[in-house]
Amino acid sequence: MSRPDLKTFKEEALKKKGVKEQYEDLAPAYEIRKKLIALRREAGFTQEEIAVMLNTKRSNISRLESVNSGISPKLSTLTDYAEAIGYKLKIDFIPKADAET
Questions:
Q1: How many whole angstroms separate alpha carbon 54 and alpha carbon 60?
Q2: Are 58 and 48 a contacting pair, CB within 8 Å?
Q3: Would you say 44 and 87 are in contact if contact means Cβ atoms under 8 Å apart?
Q4: What's the confidence (pLDDT) of residue 24?
Q5: Which phi and psi angles does 3 have, rounded to 5°?
Q6: Rounded distance between C-alpha atoms, residue 26 and residue 35, angstroms
Q7: CA distance 53 to 36
Q8: What's the number of CA atoms in the CB half-sphere (13 Å) around residue 97?
Q9: Collapsing DSSP states into helix, strand and coil, what is residue 79?
Q10: Residues 77, 82, 88, 91, CA torsion sign
Q11: Whole-number Å distance between alpha carbons of 55 and 76
Q12: pLDDT band at residue 34 using 50, 70 and 90 as cut-offs
């Protein structure tokens, strides 16, 4: 029996009761962490370099960027991180109806 590819696995998993809701609940946290990593890399910084700029440890930056971290970052931490890589943090709210499309 062959293993399904990621796309097929995801499609099948999302059909299971409760999985889709949990997936959607975790999506914002996953997206922000994915964005942090992409922007840091695009700016040409390592986790160690960001840690030095923010006067913290590399392990804290790793945890901040980890989708498996159970800790939610503070708004001030995200703001400082954004500034360190040359960005300004912007938070937006969208109506639920728009988010579901």
A1: 10
A2: yes
A3: no
A4: 83
A5: -80, 140
A6: 14
A7: 15
A8: 0
A9: helix
A10: negative
A11: 14
A12: very high
4: Cβ–Cβ under 8 A, 6 or more apart, which residues? 12
* Tokens 């639920």 -> residue: 96
Classify the phi-psi angles of 18: left when phi > 0, otherwise alpha if psi is within -120 to 50, otherwise beta.
left
Tokens of 36: 């942090």
DSSP string, 2-55: PPPPHHHHHHHHTTSTTHHHHHHHHHHHHHHHHHHHHHHHHHT--HHHHHHHTT
72: which 2 tokens? 């939610």
Instruction: Give dist(CA 22, CA 17) in Å, integer.
Output: 10
Torsion angle of the four alpha carbons 41, 81, 70, 48, in this order, in degrees rounded to the nearest 10: 60
Which range, of 3-12, 37-46, 82-91, averages the lowest pLDDT? Answer: 3-12
What whole-number distance in Å separates Cα of residue 72 and Cα of residue 66?
A: 10
